Amino acid sequence: MSVNTFNYCPICGSKLIKKEIGDEGKMAYCDTCNKPIFDMFNVTPIIMVINEFNEVCLLKQNYISKTFLVFISGYLKKYESVEEAIKREVFEETGLTVDKIEYHLSSFHEATQTLRLGFVAYVKKQAFHKSEKEVDEIYWFDLVEAEKYLNPNGFSTQIYLSYRKKTSN
User: Is 96 within 8 Å of 57 (Cβ atoms)?
Assistant: First the structure.
């Protein structure tokens, strides 16, 4: 039986019932809307930004880590595609325009109940225009050098290693 976080329909407010839904089993269902209600969770793209000189953009965001540098990340907004979110987040945090996007991997982060999607975004190197609200410092690092600034157990490192594996073949 599926665990559901909703007792009432998030669309119309009606009390939900349990109903057998195909191979999903018994789950929350709204008789008024005539549809199953699936659990909801946040989706966050984590983006390794790389330029034409094979340099990686790394951020210092003290509210995330005082020890490690990080990739650009953000949350998917309602009605936004993942690609739109990536372009928006990269521009908001760095002032850079994304030319191309490549999906690499995903992971569900249990602690924050967030689906993390790992991407590589390609940009042309130019001056940064960092977000004063979210970014403390921002740097370009050579691809090989960048790894030493990332949390070795972090999702950013998984994206980095996925990219390195793909580009070494």
Answer: yes
> What whole-number distance in Å separates Cα of residue 48 and Cα of residue 85?
14
Token readout for 56 is 């990686």
Average pLDDT over residues 112-119: 93
d(CA 57, CA 69): 10
The model carries a pTM of: 0.84
Distance CA 44, CA 80 (A): 12
Residue 43's closest CA among 70, 81, 8, 69?
81
CA separation for the pair 23, 15 (Å, rounded): 23
Exposure string over 37-49, b if 16+ CB within 10 A, otherwise e = beeeeebbbbbbb
